[in-house]
Design goal:
The chain contains no helices and 22 strands. It is mostly beta strands and 261 residues long. It has one domain: Jelly Rolls, CATH 2.60.120. Strands 1, 2, 3, 6, 7, 8, 9, 13, 19 and 20 form a ten-stranded mixed sheet that branches. Strands 4, 10, 11, 12, 17, 18, 21 and 22 form an eight-stranded antiparallel sheet that branches. A two-stranded antiparallel sheet has the order 5-16. It is globular. It starts with 14 loop residues before the first strand and ends with a strand.
């Protein structure tokens, strides 16, 4: 995601920002609700979820949503209605909505989604993909609040991935084939994020996004609920940043902003 840029509709190509400053990276964990041991403290780690723990919950400083882990995964997809943001003052704020493979228990993420940010007190919306830890890449298409978005990430074998995102309201589709060697495909997730800049050492301030409902969340062609996913809640120093509803029908849930803590 490139701060402060809102591209008009354009050709079905994408270009890397000259000086990208924000990443949609791996999960940064707080202490898990169930007391599972940490792999290690710090950015990009996640509590170990032991066998036999189903529908577990945990907290993170930058992610919320649902993550399937403990296996090897080849695809993830979901749909959502692009949220709006309420901007106050001139301080920059950020929120990202995406699907991805990896990142929950690994140091890479293959992901695509949208932004709802505040720059100079004004809303900014866009769509992007990222093969983290490489820089994010913005698509040049218009994204507006209320647009119906769908996104997917598919592992093709070897080091090949296909990332697709579409906006049926604006009438555009994007698809890109990317390579990343050595990614373990060890998780699949549908996520709301406070994007993180490693230079700043932590998540950026979460934008006040409108309630966002994800639907048709699938992993390997099956409902994400069939994989006993971990529910993740985003928390700050002073409490929860948002709330995540229980899965409905195994595929649907809502994220509701609570505070920029």
């Amino acid at each position: 995601m490139v701060v402060g840029s809102l591209a008009a509709a354009g050709p079905a190509t994408a270009s890397a920002a000259a000086t990208p400053s924000v990443h949609h990276g791996t999960v940064s964990s707080h202490l898990p609700l169930f007391g599972h041991p940490m792999i290690r403290a710090g950015h990009g780690t996640q509590p170990l979820i032991r066998g036999g723990v189903h529908n577990a919950s945990t907290t993170s400083s930058n992610w919320s949503g649902y993550a399937a882990s403990g296996g090897t995964y080849t695809s993830v997809s979901a749909s959502w209605t692009q949220p709006s943001v309420t901007c106050s003052g001139s301080k920059a704020q950020y929120s990202a909505f995406w699907v991805g493979l990896d990142g929950y228990s690994s140091q890479s993420v293959e992901q695509d989604g949208t932004e709802a940010d505040c720059s100079g007190g004004s809303p900014v919306y866009d769509a992007w993909y990222e093969m983290y830890p490489s820089a994010p890449v913005n698509f040049p298409n218009t994204v507006r609040p209320g647009d119906h978005m769908s996104a997917s990430v598919t592992y093709n074998g070897g080091s090949s991935y296909t990332l697709k995102i579409s906006d049926s309201t604006e009438g555009w589709n994007q698809s890109t084939n990317q390579s990343l060697s050595g990614a373990p495909n060890s998780s699949a997730e549908v996520i709301v994020e406070a994007p993180c800049c490693t230079v700043l050492g932590g998540p950026l301030q979460l934008a006040h996004f409108s309630p966002t409902s994800f639907t048709s969340s699938t992993v390997d062609g099956s409902a994400i609920g069939n994989f006993n996913p971990t529910e993740i809640t985003m928390v700050g120093n002073n409490g929860d940043k948002d709330s995540i509803s229980a899965l409905s029908g195994g595929t649907n849930f809502t994220a509701t902003w609570l505070a920029s803590k």
